[in-house]
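Narrative progress, year one. The postdoctoral researcher (J.K.) led the effort to move from monomer predictions toward full complexes, under supervision of the PI. The following entry was the first complex the group processed end to end, covering 640 residues in total.
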Amino acid sequence: MSTDRPVAALDRAALLLQLVPYLLGKGEVSVAEAAAEFEVAPDQMRAMVERLTVIGLPGEQGYWQLPHDLFDIDWDLLDRDDVIAITNTVGLERSPRLTAREAAALLAGLQLARSLPGFGDSELVTGLLSKLARGASTAPAAVIVAPGPVDGVRDVVDEALRSRVAVTFTYRAPGAEPISRTVDPIKVHIANGQWYLQGWDHLRQAVRTFHLDRVGDARVTDIPAAHGADPVPELFAPADDEVVARFRFPREVAPLLADYLERAEIDDADDGRAVASLRLADEQSLKRLAARRGGEVELVEPAGARRAAAAWAAAGLAQYAHES
Amino acid sequence: MNLVVALMATEQGLTKDTILSSVAGYREQLEAGASKDALEKMFERDKESLRGLGVPIETIGNRADPDDLREARYRVPTAEYALPEDITFSPAEVALLNIAGGVWGSESLSADARSGLRKIRALGIAVDEPIIGYAPRIRVRDASFAALQRAIEQCRIVTFTYLRPGEARPRERRVQPLALVEYEARWHVYGYDLNVDADRTFLLSRIVGEVTLTRKGFPAELREGAGERALEGLRAVAERQRALLEVHPGTEAALRLDRRAEQAPQGIRVPYVDLHVFADELASYGPEVRVVEPADLRAEVIRRLEATLALHGGAE
């Protein structure tokens, strides 16, 4: 959310349409608070308000506009206290309708919010869906988010979150034996349809992230979650990834590799192909990537991953050996 | 902005001449000697920009001859401009909308959501305690999403190049786009495929290059209920297509597949929507899963594994 980006003329007009109802709703509001709400720098907010005061109704033929034909603010208040208060309006008092795009963005967000435990098909969501559709200036494009399968683990974690107690479960990390963990839940992330729990891990004495698909036998405890409000890092914060991997792929399948390519350096290769270089936490996932994109992605480095991919595919094929 | 205020304040509408000679912004230019032609162009541009912002501008034509725009009057009907008075939001609703508005990872949709939220918050509603503990996110990485969304809004036929898995080269498609659907974390566009005269669902990640909006439109009625139809279609396919799989317990494959599975006497049954997308996933599990049936899915998985083996130096 950049606050020092210059505001383009059209964006400025859109903001001004929203500014009047906002200021009227607030009564008095500090420049800083209004700037934060509109995601602009305080200077820009001040400029917007000043610009507002030269907007008004057309003057009578041949005369310039009279003061009451223009928007006005309490200038003393602005100069002295950095506070904005509108003193005269000539229109724009009501919030504009949502644009089709705004309504679509909120409608789709609501569908995802509906998958949160406790929000299911609640009247709250259904009511909002129809209000948003009705509040749009033109029909929003249908942007649908299908809810994924839900299981008991999510409900248990939700209950722990709400009652601010620790949750205990068996966790199976990739390629490791299951371990029993007790965690003060802090935040549940839902990304790409996957659910992750960030919480204070009693065993490691630190904040850890758990993929809920890897969680089993979850139970709510009666241990108060002492670290339930601890700060958490970004979900996929860059880590000290050690392995440098390189793979070759045909350009047209790039969209299918977006997960990897967005943090890779990409160089042209011959034949409409490209080579991606990126850092990874471990090379275990590469053989799975190669098999998933069977024949399209060729691992170049590390050599171990290349061999592992061949062995992985061969072991997979061995299961079908008696058939062919 | 002066234009909006002027057009909202008038009941019967203002003629172009009145606007150019009295509304601030045009008036100064006219007095400074700008040509009327240039000002009229400026007015047309401003009108279009405002419509783009969702400001409805009504043109009231000559009653005797509606096509004659020389005497046309322009106004902004307040009822269509403003959020209807009877739409109000409770504090709990605003709290939930705040979560809904924060889900977008992509910059443009996220800006749209925040701007929509601002309009709603400006209604001066108190907000419940924020709903804490949840951070749902939707990511849209497909470049074609924005163009398709615009095409749906404007009811315009699109063309794009689509690479169907299993086909050697991509093909040009001509589609009436009706809905965008995220299903199992992948974005699809549902629409009427004019090449085959039937409803089709396309994976956005298999669209190669740009989506082109043609000048040709389609009736807006086609969009009604399209989202539900698309979703039902995908669910019906998943209902029909169930693979029988043998999965090694305790593996990554078991973890990922069991949640979606039904137990069967010989292994598990997992529904799938797209043969190729599912074959991709199953191939990635290598020796952790064996496809019993259907035969076409098994063949696709074997083909991927063979190609992977061949590309990485073959068996040792």
